[in-house]
Every structure is written in structure tokens, then in C-alpha cells.
Amino acid sequence: MLEINSVVEAKVDCTECGACCKGLMINVTKEEAAHAASGVGISTEVFKEKYIEESTGGQWIMNTIPCHFLTDNKCSIYENRFAECRAFPHLNKPNFADRLFGTLMHYSICPIVFNVVEQLKVKLDFFPERAEV
Ligand code: SF4
Ligand code: SF4
After folding, report:
1. Which is the closest atom of ligand 2 to the Cα of 88?
2. Which of 7, 10, 22, 24 makes the best surface tag, with the fewest CB within 10 Å?
């Protein structure tokens, strides 16, 4: 999967897509919010008021989908973007098999995930319709 992912990732231009920024809920830590706030020249308090919703459990979440910071299909705070944004679609992390459910949730959203899964199916000869009954 990692080999396939490295080939697929290199061929996909995220600036032509932006689907994750347009469709996913983004969790943000307080430290990340402070960093991003400083990057756009506002206080963390103002950043929170404008862009963050706090869950009942205290988790900070971006308060709009698509994300406020997506401009012309590019991240306007790219250098200060959040850890979740940097890690998506999480295919470079270990224990892929344990995270299969989360990966497949993004199959219809992310072209990288779609292509990696499809190529993985070919590599593993995963074609249930061909299975003998
Ligand atoms: S902060 Fe940037 S990378 Fe993250 S969701 Fe918003 S636009 Fe996308
Ligand atoms: S959905 Fe996938 S391909 Fe599209 S911008 Fe996000 S990471 Fe890149």
C-alpha cells in the first residue's frame, strides 16, 4: 500500500481537487488555532470567535464546511495549516489494516484514496464477484 500510495500521491495535484477542505470536519487543537491566528495577524480569541465551534466535550472544530481558509482551491494558511490537514488522507501512517474503515470512508471523496484502493484490489486480486460459490 505504501508503495502504491507514493506513486499515486505524486500524480495527484491537490490544488485541482480540494475535496477534503470542501467536505470534511476539521478538528483543531488550541495550539494550532493560536499558531494560525498569529499567522493571519489576529488574537486566538478572535480566531476562535470567527472560525471555531467548541463541542460539548471541549473539542475545537472549524465552524464551516467548506473550510474558511480555502481560497481558489488553495489553502490560504498553508504554512500554518492544522495537523489533520497535513496528515490527510492518512495513508502514510502505520497500521493501515487497522485503519481500513476510516480509509474507506474517504474512498468516494479523495482521489488519492480511490486510486490507492483500486490499485490495491488489483494487486491483491480482490474481485469477490469472481469468487466461487
Ligand atoms: S486549513 Fe487549509 S488545508 Fe486545512 S481544511 Fe482549511 S483550507 Fe484545507
Ligand atoms: S481530497 Fe485527497 S486529493 Fe483531494 S485535496 Fe484532499 S488529499 Fe488531495
Report:
1. 7
2. 10
